[in-house]
Amino acid sequence: MKPYVYITRKLPEEIIKPLQQKYEVNMWEHEDIPVPKDILLLEAKKADALLTVLSDSIDERILTAGKNLKVVANLAVGFDNIDLKAASRGGIAVCNTPDVLTDTTADLTFGLLMATARRIVEAAEFVKEGKWESWSPLLLAGQDIHHKTIGIVGMGNIGETVAKRATGFDMNILYHNRSRKPEVEQRLGLAYASFDELVKKSDFIVCLTPLTAETKNMFTREVFKKMKKSAIFINASRGPVVDEQALYEALVAGEIVGAGLDVFEKEPINAGHPLLKLTNVVALPHIGSSSIETRVAMMQLCIDNIEAIIAGKEPKTLVNKDWMPLVKA
To answer: Where would I find the D-isomer specific 2-hydroxyacid dehydrogenase NAD-binding domain in this sequence (predicted)?
Structure first.
């Protein structure tokens, strides 16, 4: 029997064709509707490989449903949707898609910063709604970006690349990370700061930290109160790192000027969410890596990882470094 691969979202036929030539492949028929948990559980019982997306909860129940599962290839850099410990115990490799999306996500992050600072979305809607009746000196005036201080929380590859974008705007760049990066500091002219110092001094606070037990709800009401009243908060990492009620209250109270958000605590976000009612919030549907070129590269990396594991080889981007392959019955 051919190995069985299940894909939890509809992908382009030309992408999965090479897989279909080697393996038995089944794919959820929808691009934007999550596969129901009961169907995912049934598929996991017989799968040798799962190709998943960030919104799929791959818990111990899924990972232990069958005896054949060897790899979960996640179409994302993040992997907080997967129980890594359970995967490692079961000899299941977990792979992600880093590096190929770094520049694309950095572009979107800086674009979100610019859109929020210069009120671009608000201004575009102003024109479309027929509200532009005359020119005035402070019509939809926003905040300058050049020569301001940007504080980046989380200096991974994407953080470094956002910092590189910021140098083109002659920005003063602060960063906070679990560990200092002297080489990056020297190369890009960054300055390390404590978290408290960064939020107090920065005009733009850009969150790019991964979601961990330590970073969950790290942006509280107390943190927002420490920011400049002219500060703008950008989150392109994970929604749960922010207390959304605290952010809403800070924006309504005028404790910060605005927020640009590509991620939310619960996704997709409900249209009635309080943050979406605020004109000083730019909200995007988690599209950080969503360019055609990058998403195709991410899909291909997932396929490469699946093929490597099934062939008994080392995958390109293994997440659970303690993974030890077991002989599957």
So the answer is: 110-288
